[in-house]
Every structure is written in structure tokens, then in C-alpha cells.
Amino acid sequence: MRYPFATVQPSHKETIGFVAGKTAPGSPVENAPSQSCSGGRRERTMVILTAVLGGLFAFLFLAAGVERPRTPCVDELSYVPVARALLHGTVPALPSQLPGWHHPPLGSYLISFGITLAGDNPLGWRLASIVFGALTLVAIFLWSYLLVRNYRLALAAMLLTAFNNFWFVISRLAMLDVFCFAFAMWGVVGATAAFSLEARVGFRRVCLLFSGVMFGLSMACKWIAVDTLAVMFAVVVVLFLGAIIPAITPNENFAEAARKARSVGWITLVLGILVAPALAYIATILAEFREAHYAVSLKSILDFHVAIYRVSKSFPGLASIRAPWYSWPLRTSPMRGLSYLLGNFVVMWSGLVALLICLVRLRKGFRLAEIVVVLLYAANLLQWAITPIKTPIYYYYYPAAMFLGPAIVVALHQSGANRVRTGRICFFLVLGAAVFFMYCYPRMAYLEAPWDCMFGCWN
Predict the structure, then answer these.
(1) Cα 143 from chain centroid?
(2) What is the pLDDT of residue 38?
(3) H-run or E-run covering 264
(4) Contact call for residues 264 and 239 (beta carbons, < 8 A)
(5) Beta-carbon count within 10 A of 306 CB
(6) How far apart, in whole angstroms, are the C-alpha atoms of residue 243 and residue 249?
(7) What is the 3-state secondary structure (H, E, C) of 286-301?
(8) Binning pLDDT at 50, 70 and 90, where does residue 94 land?
(9) Under a CB-based contact definition with an 8 Å cutoff, are residues 308 and 104 in contact?
């Protein structure tokens, strides 16, 4: 039997980004694209084609039946009224004067754009979420490819993410998390490309600046995006220090990424990681002030943010759906009030095993792919241990859960198994995830009787 995810392991001379860069410092490829880095023209074409077609298919898949449920559910009850207020020009003087206004305004504007295009109906409320859900899946695929430089493994990461119930549910609801994570994920893609691609320095500088803008827009949806930015900031600082202090460079993999960080230049690093996010964020706030005819001053901007913080901190939420953050990774009961949300057991639990494998492997050698995946997952989960909210909810696990698919392929890529065994593992993981997803699909998609129980009813 031939498995569709059977992989060909790269030779020791290939450059594979964050995993095992092998280009000698000072080599001519610094200012010229490398064929080995990209896997050749054919593989580049396949990657681009898969990203485009995968995004289109994801959009159509998410859009099918998105008008169900026909009334807002859970946090849509907060965010849809805010979007309507923005659309009709009835924005309050302060966030505390409009229920549900406890985040920066960009996500609510995106929801209102969907309403403008498709009307004040379920499709209009959720149109922007569908678009950004599809963009999230494309970003996961491209990032996984940058990490492992293996098309089939990156495709496996994309499918595991698509079959992760979190992606499907959150991408079909008018809530802010899908926007926040989509922007953050593209920021991660841009930063990873800047320190892994064998491309011209100018292009990699653009990638880093693009990354900064994406992180700024992410924080303009929800402040929790600062955790993902903090991880990438820490990685950039360590890489740059490794470039200027060779004594702290642990291995050739680290040295190659550090060389690329240094070639980008400290000015671009500062602009991309600090200045660009701040400017992108402030731009969205100023746009809101202009739309609402607020007086722009340092005091008014500060008051605006203090009001958001106070509303967010005091927001009561629904005690009936409260779930402690430490219970999320191993949860086995669905969140019935939110499309029967339940993480795909195959992805959730094999992803946790993959993270443990990455941690163990870090004891034997410093590999950037493993450490970035582990840090991004940990930051997006552990932040809820200190975030001052009264009612933690299971769907807050969404950003962390999205890193489990890439974690699986990173662990498999460096497992030492031959290509046939790796292909078999990928095949059965994707197959198992697909079966679990299809079992949950009727309830997640709000199918009507008798289709809602086509695979058995949930008690």
C-alpha cells in the first residue's frame, strides 16, 4: 500500500529552514535564491498551488450551511451588536457604554464589513470569519512547510488543522478569535520566512516588516496576541545575540538562522518586531477615533484603553460555561452551547505527545523548529493562568490548539524514522482525525433531523 504522506527525507546538503540549515556563513546564496532551499521549482509551484486551492476550498467548506444557527450564540451576542453600532454610526463615547465592547475595534469592524456585503443576517455576521478561517489554514500550511521543508508533511499539518474541530467551529462564528489568530499566524509566517528562506536580504526584510504589521493588526483585534508577539520577539533577540556573540551559538542550525537575522540588520529587526506592530495597532485606533469623531489626544487614547481594560476585566461572562484553563487540553465533553465544540481527540492528544517529543529532543540539541512550536503553544495556553478574566471558556484554547498540527509534523520530521514509516504514521493520523471530525460534523454544523444523528446522537 502506498501512503500519500510518505516522505523523502532531505539530504545532508539541503537547507531546510529552522530545522537543519546547512548553508555556510558568507556563502553566495545570501543574495540569491536557492533551489535546494525551496525544494526546486516544481515543489515551489506545488506549495503555491496548494495554498491557493486549499484556501478556496476551505472558504467553500466553511461557507456551506453557515447560516445555521440562525440566531447569535454565546459571544456572538456581544460582538454582533458592536458591529451593528459601528455600521450605523452609533458608537459610544467610551467602551463601557456599549455591552460587549471589551476589545480593540478591528475585529468588530471586520464583522461589520461582512454585514455590509451580505446583509444583517447569519451569513453577513459570519462572512469575515469564514475568510479569515481560510487564511488561517493557508498560513498553517506555509508555516509548516517553512519549518520542515517537506511538502507532504506540510500538507499533513494542513489537513490535521482542517480536521481539528476548533478551526471549523471558530471559523464559522462572528467572534474575534479567528481574526486575532489569523493575523498572528501570518505574523509568525513572516518572521519565520525572514530567518529561514534562502532569499535576497531585501525580500527577507520585507517579510519581517510584514510580520510586524500582522502582529499589530492581531493585537488590534484582541490584546492576547501580545503573547505570540512576545515569543517571536524572544526568538529574534536570541538569534541576533547568537549572531554577534558566536560563543553562545549551540549548533549549526542555530548559527544559520542567526546569520540570517544578522544579515537582516538590527534596524529592520527593531522596525519589524517593535515599531511596525505599534504603528499598525495605533493606526486602527486612530481610524476608530476618526469614525466616532473622538478628539485625538494622548489622554483620550489612554482613557479609551483604560475603559476597555476595565470592561474586559469586569466582564462577567456566563458561569454555566466556565472551564478552567488547565482542563482544556484533555477535555472530553463538548461545549454544547457553542456548536458542540470539542477538540479532535486524534489531533489534541497526538499533538500533546508531539510536544513532549519536541521537549525531550531539545535536551539533546537546540533546534529552532521544536523550540518555536513548544513556546508558541505554551504561551497561548499558559497566558490564561495570569490573564485577569472572571470566566475562562473552553474556546479560548483555540490559538494554542492550532499549533498542535504543526507540532505533530515537526516531531515526525526529526523522528529518525524512514520515509515509509513516517508516511504511514501521517496517513493514519489524518485518517483518524477525519473520522472523528465526520462523527462530530452533524452537530457542529447544526444539521437538522434526521441528519443531526446520522452517526449517533450525543447525550
Answers:
(1) 10
(2) 41
(3) helix 252-264
(4) no
(5) 13
(6) 8
(7) HHHHHHHCCCCCHHHH
(8) low
(9) yes
Give the number of other Cβ atoms within 10 Å of residue 119's Cβ.
12
- What integer pLDDT is reported at residue 91 of this predicted model? 67
Question: Count of CB atoms within 10 A of residue 410's CB?
Answer: 29
Q: How many domains does the chain have?
A: 1
Say which amino acid occupies 59: F
The overall longest dimension of the chain from CA atoms, in Å, is 68
What is the per-residue burial (b if ≥16 Cβ within 10 Å, else e) of 31-64? eeebebbbbeeeeeebbeebbeebbeebbebbbe
> How far is the CA of 26 from the CAs of 29, 35, 199, 260, 302, in angstroms?
8, 18, 14, 10, 47
Confirm whether 173 is domain-assigned: yes
pLDDT at 19 over 60: no
318 pLDDT tier (thresholds 50, 70, 90): low
Indicate whether 21 belongs to any domain: no
- Using an 8 Å Cβ cutoff, are 173 and 339 in contact? yes
Residue 113 and residue 120 in contact, taking contact as beta carbons nearer than 8 Å: no
In this predicted structure, what is the pLDDT of residue 381?
96
Q: Residue 132 is part of which domain span?
A: 41-318+339-451
The C-alpha cell of 218 is what? 492581531
Average pLDDT over residues 342-371: 90
Q: Residue 170's closest CA among 85, 103, 75?
A: 75
Mean pLDDT calculated for residue range 430-454: 87
Which residues on adjacent β-strands are paired with residue 322? 393
Considering only residues 55 and 16, tell me which one the structure prediction assigns the higher pLDDT: 55
With bands split at pLDDT 50, 70 and 90, how would you rate the model's confidence at 292? confident
- Average pLDDT value for residue range 367-393: 89
Q: What are phi and psi of 454, to 5 degrees?
A: -65, -25
- Asked if residue 255 lies in contact with residue 190, where contact means CB atoms within 8 angstroms, the answer is no
Q: With respect to residue 289, please indicate whether it lies within any of the assigned structural domains.
A: yes
Grid cell listed for 345: 481527540
Do the Cβ atoms of 319 and 391 come closer than 8 Å?
yes
Residue 49 in domain: yes
Intra-chain end-to-end CA distance of the chain, in Å: 39
Contact 318, 335 (CB under 8 A): no
Say what percent of the chain tops pLDDT 70: 82
What's the mean pLDDT when you consider all of the chain? 84
- Under 8 Å between Cβ of 248 and 241: yes
Query: Per the omega criterion (within 30 degrees of 0), is the bond before 450 cis?
Result: yes
Residue 341: strand pairing partners: 335
In this prediction, residue 31 carries a pLDDT of 41
